[in-house]
Specification:
Elements lengths: L20 H12 L6 E5 L1 E2 L8 E2 L1 H13 L3 E2 L2 H9 L8 E8 L2 H14 L3 E5 L1 H6 L7 H9 L2 E5 L16 H23 L5 E3 L7 H9 L3 E3 L18 E2 L7 H8 L2 E2 L2 E5 L14 E5 L11 E4 L2 E3 L2 E2 L4 E4 L8 E10 L6 E10 L9
Helix pairs in contact: 2-4
């Protein structure tokens, strides 16, 4: 039996991030349907020979698809998920979007045939410049056309896969904006020229963004997809939509199960609202304001930094804060917060991303 597909074209750490009138409107919408959430899975390589941290083997990937089919998940295209959120249509009880970053050739070789067999739509975020520079590593335009015809949506990962929020030495704000215009807009133009007009969805390289880059995406009419965890919902910032990594250590179906079934914690606001912090801000306080606590066990809410459990301090009925027990590492990290539903499951989930640079303002890939 093939999985029910709603595409336009045919999980807690072991159980177990700017306010605006637009955000306020989203919060009001979400209050009407607090469980209007969908999990978005993020993959990179599907191979046994690529870096383990960003890879899932073909056998493991098939196990993921088997799990979705056997547990009667509805696999939506990325466009359909967007449309449902915009139109406040709600989602099936178990629904998921599948995405791949970079458009590696092993996705065409190993993942695309399986997804076609299971009749599951998916999205591939590509880098046109890198496709030209390293054609043996990435899918060609002809291959992208082929998988597009099989139900894939081809979308934008920038031209260069650079650390976009890093400013170059002596670079002015205008020069940085011009560089971002090339990386984002010219990539979109290349995709549209080769494959026909595609939706304006942009996945940040390395999942890195700041307020200035978010503002540019909003100005240019893009949705922005990040790499820290959590479901997509009306609460999501349209230029920082969260996804669940499903490769490497995150490929374990025992932990992925809870993430796939999770709901978005109804977060109305949080600070700091952009990931990049100062080098000397070693243990930043995360302050979160909820829109409501209906349907969740507020007293059981906990946050996690790595293996550390962080007990929230409640300022009032809707606002809590947590502070890391250990210094954040140099580079990218996150704090996840979860709370069980009144019935025990599913879990409500929220994640805040952090990027702590070194003393020179840099950090590892």
């Amino acid at each position: 039996m093939k999985l029910k597909s709603l595409g336009l074209a045919s999980i807690l750490l072991v159980a177990c991030g700017d306010s605006s009138s637009q955000e306020a409107s989203s919060v009001e919408t979400a209050k009407k349907q607090p469980d209007n959430s969908i999990a978005v899975l993020q993959y990179h390589h599907v191979s046994e020979t690529t870096p383990a941290v960003t890879s899932i083997t073909p056998k493991q990937f098939k196990q993921h698809l088997d799990y979705l089919e056997e547990n009667e998940f509805s696999v939506l295209s990325i466009e359909q998920a967007h449309q449902r959120i915009e139109n406040d249509e709600g989602f099936p009880d178990k629904a998921v979007v599948i995405t791949f970053d970079d458009g590696y050739d092993n996705v065409f070789e190993h993942a695309a045939p399986l997804l076609a067999d299971y009749d599951m739509p998916y999205a591939v975020f590509v880098n046109p410049d890198l496709m030209k520079e390293s054609p043996s590593a990435y899918m060609s335009w002809e291959q992208l056309k082929q998988i597009q015809q099989q139900g894939a949506t081809i979308v934008n990962h920038g031209q260069t896969h650079a650390h976009l929020i890093r400013r170059r030495a002596s670079e002015t704000e205008e020069q940085w904006r011009e560089r971002m215009h090339y990386d984002v807009i010219s990539a979109q133009q290349a995709i549209d020229a080769k494959l026909g007009e595609q939706p304006k969805y942009f996945a940040y390289p390395y999942g890195e963004y700041d307020a200035e880059l978010q503002n540019l995406l909003d100005e240019w009419g893009f949705l922005g997809f990040a790499q820290h965890s959590g479901p997509w919902s009306p609460y999501s910032d349209k230029t920082a939509i969260t996804r669940f990594p499903a490769s490497g250590i995150y490929a374990n179906l025992k932990t992925l199960d809870a993430k796939l079934k999770s709901r978005a914690l109804p977060v109305a606001d949080y600070k700091p609202s952009e990931p990049l912090i100062a080098y000397d801000d070693e243990r930043p306080t995360l302050r979160v304001t909820l829109a409501h606590t209906d349907g969740l066990q507020q007293k059981a809410l906990r946050c996690f930094q790595g293996t550390d459990v962080l007990q929230p301090t409640w300022q009032d009925e809707l606002t809590f804060s947590v502070k890391p027990k250990e210094n954040l590492p140099i580079g990218r990290s996150r704090i996840n917060c979860t709370a069980p539903a009144d019935a025990g499951t599913p879990y409500y989930w929220f994640s805040a991303a952090f990027i702590r640079p070194d003393a020179e303002g840099s950090w590892p890939d």
